[in-house]
Design brief:
466 residues, single chain, four-stranded antiparallel sheet, 39% helix, 16 strands
């Protein structure tokens, strides 16, 4: 009996040893497979990251496959790759740049920047430059886009659209986006004309819209501020767009995009670099949220709530200054919450009285505004196209049939812009101002109306339309 018990105990020990050895062997194999999978994982991630998606202004995406890690692809290389895929010329690629955009912040990158690396640092950039809460920053997602280079001269763009139809298409798409979102405030009549051109470019015919139905799609072809002004007259919008659409029946389809962008060339706010901020306005207890636009010739300030122009300055008549937030506000001992961009200018009250004043713009993007203004002012000699407009569409030319010399010799309608005073239009250089008005220092805005001088709390600013 004892011998039998020892034999059974020995077999049990042998069985336990075999089971434990098997478990240990399987555990070792599992660990080996896990290590192998972990070591192979970075290569899979690198293959995924080597594909970069670039969003275009016509709401389409382009897939760019990089031959190396995407963090090592510069903005200049990515732009050239996208433009080659879109079959643009090398001159057409110069008109565009890579941007990183989101609802809270838009940044144009230099050719030496790395877009995907900056996307990884996006939340740090939002904390530094965007007036957003922590919750808004968490929900904000950046995308890489191909958009117009704000430093590209308008004179070269007018020649480019004749030679490169692809570049003209995407420049028109971006101009249409800025118009529809209210970034380019225009007169109501021009807005109706652009809306008719958009319907014509989309292939819509007047027969597709019964009388009184165009106001139903007004939010797709008109900016919100134009619709708001005519909210009590919906049929007026239908009537005006329908009349302009009738006039376009004999227009050649290939010139529609050129006509569209040519109308926006006449606007001084075209090719603006946009920034966000806030400023003090009379009869407002709190600071008013504003949108600042900077071009090589002008600085614009728009009210973001009403989309009205608060002020417009000529770059030659102003000088700017950056005030850091660690400085005291007005010597009161209180520190400003944001940096301030100060626009200094001179108000002409009469012939003998001149008063220097300033408009402060408080924003996290104040340093960006100052840098943009300085560069635009330095390169203003490259943008000698302030008063040149071209609203007559040139005939469509094949890409290989027009060289640069022929393009320079082509006759354009570079007529001076006019001001509408009452029912008459007069050239800008011959404004009809009486001697008394001239002595008082009264000026005219783009509508031909007298400009009121409005106190902006600590400052006085001309061209206020509040």
């Amino acid at each position: 009996k004892q011998w039998y018990q020892r034999r059974v105990r020995g077999r049990l020990h042998l069985l336990v040893f075999c089971v434990s050895s098997t478990v240990a062997l399987f555990g070792l194999l599992f660990v080996t497979e896990l290590v192998t999978f972990t070591m192979s994982q970075p290569s899979r991630v690198s293959k995924t990251k080597s594909v970069i998606w670039v969003v275009l202004m016509d709401k389409k995406k382009q897939k760019i496959t990089a031959g190396r890690e995407c963090d090592q692809v510069s903005a200049g290389e990515l732009r050239d790759a996208v433009c080659r895929k879109l079959r643009m010329t090398s001159d057409g690629a110069e008109a565009f740049s890579i941007w990183i955009c989101s609802p809270l912040l838009q940044l144009q990158l230099k050719p030496t920047h790395y877009p995907t690396a900056l996307c990884d640092l996006w939340y740090d950039l939002l904390a530094q430059f965007a007036p957003a809460t922590e919750r808004q920053a968490k929900n904000d997602l950046p995308i890489i886009m191909l958009m117009r280079n704000v430093f590209y001269p308008l004179s070269q763009e007018k020649l480019l659209v004749q030679r490169d139809p692809q570049a003209r298409y995407y420049l028109t798409a971006e101009a249409m986006f800025n118009f529809l979102t209210g970034r380019y405030p225009v007169e109501d009549e021009l807005a109706y004309k652009l809306a008719a051109l958009q319907l014509k470019m989309e292939g819509k015919k007047l027969n597709n819209f019964p009388p009184g139905s165009l106001q139903n799609i007004a939010n797709q072809i008109l900016p919100w501020d134009v619709i708001k002004r005519k909210k009590k007259q919906p049929l007026f919008i239908d009537k005006r767009i329908r009349s302009y659409l009738t006039d376009l029946n004999t227009t050649t389809p290939g010139t529609l995009d050129h006509m569209y962008i040519s109308h926006l060339w006449t606007q001084t706010c075209y090719r603006c670099a946009f920034f966000q901020g806030q400023t003090e306005v009379q009869n407002h207890r709190k600071d008013v949220p504003i949108r600042v636009g900077i071009t090589p010739h002008n600085v614009f300030i728009w009210n973001k709530v009403t989309n009205k122009t608060i002020a417009e300055f000529d770059n030659k008549d102003v000088n700017t200054e950056l005030i850091k937030s660690d400085q005291d506000k007005g010597g009161s001992g209180k520190k400003m919450p944001f940096d301030a961009w100060l626009i200094n200018f001179t108000v002409v009250a009469s012939i003998k009285k001149r008063k220097s004043t300033a408009v402060p713009i408080y924003s996290k993007q104040a340093c960006m505004m100052q840098t943009m203004f300085e560069r635009m002012k330095e390169e203003s000699h490259l943008h000698a196209d302030k008063s040149t407009t071209s609203v007559q569409p040139a005939p469509v030319v094949q890409q290989g049939n027009l060289n640069e010399v022929d393009a320079m010799m082509r006759t354009y309608d570079f007529s001076n812009p006019t001001l509408k005073i009452g029912s008459k239009e007069v050239p800008v250089g011959t404004r009809h101002i009486s001697k008394k008005e001239n002595l008082r220092g009264v000026k005219l805005n783009t509508k031909g109306n007298k400009l009121k001088k409005t106190v902006v709390k600590q400052t006085v600013a001309t061209k206020y339309d509040v």
